[in-house]
Design a protein that fits this description.
Keywords: DNA-binding, DNA-directed RNA polymerase, Nucleotidyltransferase, Sigma factor, Transcription, Transcription regulation, Transferase
Strand content: 5-15%
Structural class: alpha+beta
Number of strands: 8
Organism: Pseudomonas fluvialis
Distance between the termini: 65 Å
Family: Belongs to the sigma-54 factor family.
InterPro entries: RNA_pol_sigma_54, RNA_pol_sigma_54_core-bd, RNA_pol_sigma_54_DNA-bd, RpoN_core-bd_sf
Pfam family, one: Sigma54_AID
Strand order of the largest sheet: 3-2-5-6
Radius of gyration: 32 Å
Largest sheet: 4 strands, mixed
Oligomer: single chain
Amino acid sequence: MTPQLQQAIRLLQLSTLDLQQEIQEALESNPMLERQEEGEDFDNSDPLAEGDSLTLTSPQEIASTSSEQHEAQLEEGEWHERIPSELPVDTAWEDVYQTSASSLPSNDDDEWDFTSRTSSGESLHSHLLWQLNLAPMSDKDRLIAVTLIDCMNPQGYLEETLEEVLEAFDPELDVELDEIEAVLHRIQQFEPAGIGARDLRECLLLQLRQLPAQTAWLEEAKRLVEEHLDLLGSRDYAALGRRLRLKEDELRQVVELIQRLNPRPGAQIESSEPEYIVPDIIVRKDNERWLVELNQEAMPRLRVNPQYAGFVRRADSSADNTFMRNQLQEARWFIKSLQSRNETLMKVATQIVEHQRGFLDYGDEAMKPLVLHDIAEAVGMHESTISRVTTQKYMHTPRGIYELKYFFSSHVSTAAGGECSSTAIRAIIKKLVAAENSKKPLSDSKIAGLLEAQGIQVARRTVAKYRESLGIAPSSERKRLL
């Protein structure tokens, strides 16, 4: 593989956010590249400026300039020695050109933002330590508290027993088990409610005890959690009603109160950076036609800087001139790679929209079966290329933002001899479960029977697999009180 092809493949598989970072690093490291700001008018009199400009707005605007045009432009320049358009196969980029943008350090820039590159979401550990610093406590109790906090998992539960925590202390500190338990009770008053529990029962009780005393059915909820949590887990509502001596409507309100509690209180504290999605493709309907466009705001408009390109002198082999020549060629190849990426993305997205018009018009249930081979055959590319294009690339549609891979799904035969996509079957299963009787939820076998009645032949195990992929619990766990 030539360095040009290696770069094109690497850019092709980058997500939009990663590509924006790659472009920014290229702009910072290569003086031959420049960005066109909105409303800025470049001087197009320079031959290189016109040939190497890149406007990411439409398929017509992103059409690449042919290599013959580039050669003609070089002949009109101020040098005769031509830069090679191709490098030998398996040549490393660093063997010919100086370090690329990604390898250049950017932390010595005066505008380098330390906070944006090192900050992360607050962790449960730091959140609890922050509250601990505000609590009046002796040095010995504070040491115990820090140890207990270190023993908590991200869900907020204490993973070690108090005896194991006691063994971790130096005997000279003279720490007693009662002291550890007393400090634990203080930590259990921290936010979020339910933190520091040793099991689910204690976690729910801690949250119930922090509710206002006038909360309806509070005492019954405490009794249920403390004495009959196993019956609630098995959804044996008849036995629960008898044990608590409650009618069905009363029991339902008690259960609803418990269901409002959080069994994983530590998960409320976000510990990771939020991930943002920038769509690469925008699909909209205009006069009954679906239009496919590249996201104009996803990437900047790039071109070769005509002023710096004019500094390259003919028949000059000095170090400065060689460096500028290398930077010029690297800029041209980078722009070509971007053009190739966006042309390929447009071709693939257009074919996907053409194939999945039913989904855009009617939703998931109208999704058609689609595999990589279908798109690869339509656009005349290899399946591996289609796989790279559809990975971490997103399409904005009137129905929401979807990864391009979402539109690909296997098929299931129908009674009429046709095919139904797995995505459509999942949508039907979700619809059936949403409309089921919560007292008698549909089993996987029953759902398979209902699908068969619609002409879709699906085995019970396949239904179970689709149901699990949708995050829908089994019928035994979906049983509810009306």
